[in-house]
Amino acid sequence: MARVSIQHVDKVYNNREHILKDLSLEVSDGEFLVLLGPSGCGKTTLLNCVAGLIEIEGGSIHIGGQDVTDLDPKNRNIAMVFQSYALYPTKTARGNLSFGLRMKGMPKKEIEQRVQWAAELLQITDLLDRKPSQLSGGQRQRVAIGRALVRQAAVFLFDEPLSNLDAKLRTEMRFEIKKLHKILNSTIIYVTHDQVEAMTLATKIAVMDRGVFQQIASPEELYDYPENMFVARFIGAPGMNFLRATIQKNGGMAARLADNSLLPLQEYPFRATPEDGQQVIVGIRPEHFSSHANGGVAFDLAIDVYEPLGSETLVYFTIADQAVAARLEPDFVKQHKDQGSLPVFINTRKISLFDQQTEIRL
Ligand SMILES: Nc1ncnc2c1ncn2[C@@H]1O[C@H](COP(=O)(O)OP(=O)(O)O)[C@@H](O)[C@H]1O
Ligand SMILES: [Mg+2]
Question: Name one GO cellular component term (predicted).
Fold first, then answer.
């Protein structure tokens, strides 16, 4: 096990395409760090830099306190699981698991023990004599993870390992990977574009966009205190609702919406005192609409559309010409839906505020 320290890493392709821009990140020993961001933002590139599969143009990478910036992948004490699995098609699962160890000249007995150990952990003992073509997608994925496990490396790197699986299998494997981390307590860097995967697996998430970290924080902190609108948009489904407003200081700090309704902000933890009349975006998560007062602000909102999901009902409204989604109790919606509008409260203690120009949290 080991910590990983990424300092001021730059990656430039063809002398002009600046793909990774001055990235710094600390991954503690035993941490499950998820790199989250849209397709093409540079996640795989950064993972490959940590693995040593591609060179960097600036900065340094340390693993377990050792500067590995100029070391070959095989000397970095890492094990990687690729998006494509990259299994040897002509070898059995056992052959795939043991190949790397045999190449290192490990004694046969120890190889057998490690293969057995990993196979039991991943519940693939019965499949060890099959070739990849005789395995399902989920089973191949387990073999690919097993091949990384047997190396007993200090750091595991996963590149979107579940993206080729169907939804049900993905949920199952997600659970397995989480259990695995709990058992092994190893340091993991895991790449995904799926925010649910990130939220459920990570102890810490680094949100990335266009080669720049937007925020590095725990899942809870990212969700409750997004640093900017990109992060606020990326985490949560349905996403955070955004409403244009202006700051009004007279008569107690508040946000005035376009329809002149007021959201009190007396308790909002401003980082810097806002200006009177400053144009802001108010961010409200769907679950911060409620049928209970709880000190919130009352609105009577016409229902545009509603979607009963069983445990909750998503209701779409229009506030000051802007569409919002609310997560409400099914019974409450049922009770009121015939009258076409709902008496709801917005929990103003939970809102986020962003500057309209910079989109940065206030
Ligand atoms: N060998 C390469 N040469 C030039 N550009 C590349 C190369 N590999 C990746 N890129 C570019 O780097 C960017 C980030 O790619 P990648 O790290 O694969 O993104 P992600 O994994 O987040 O989807 C993309 O714009 C991609 O086109
Ligand atoms: Mg990728």
Answer: ATP-binding cassette (ABC) transporter complex, substrate-binding subunit-containing
